[in-house]
């Protein structure tokens, strides 16, 4: 993977020295050379990723091993016919999670 020479913050904070006629041309040219190298690197990386994506699309996914797949999160099963007690208990648990303690009237 390509590691850029400059970050957006580096570019934003860059200050050039000034001479009699404005900025020192060598400083500006050197800095722009770094920016150009970054853009060229990004373009190469984008092309590589596009090729990799096309290869992945062309390759059937049947060959993926079970271990390579992401494990699916455990989702608790909800009974198809919950009772009022179950629903009230869930609501109470949600209230405790949101408000921290049961609501008390003064």
TrEMBL record:
Biological process GO terms, please? Answer: cell division
UniProt entry keywords in alphabetical sequence: Cell cycle, Cell division, Cell shape, Coiled coil, Cytoplasm
Cross-referenced InterPro entries: Cell_cycle_GpsB, DivIVA_domain, DivIVA_fam
Renumbered to this chain, region (Disordered) spans: 55-86
Q: From the Swiss-Prot or TrEMBL record, give the protein name.
A: Cell division regulator GpsB
Q: Does the keyword Oxidoreductase apply?
A: no
Return the Gene3D superfamilies for the record.
6.10.250.660
* Subcellular compartments: Cytoplasm
- The annotated regions of Basic and acidic residues compositional bias extend over 64-73
Does the keyword field hold S-adenosyl-L-methionine?
Answer: no
Species name? Exiguobacterium antarcticum
**Which lineage do the record's taxonomy fields give for this organism?**
Bacteria, Bacillati, Bacillota, Bacilli, Bacillales
- Superkingdom assignment: Bacteria
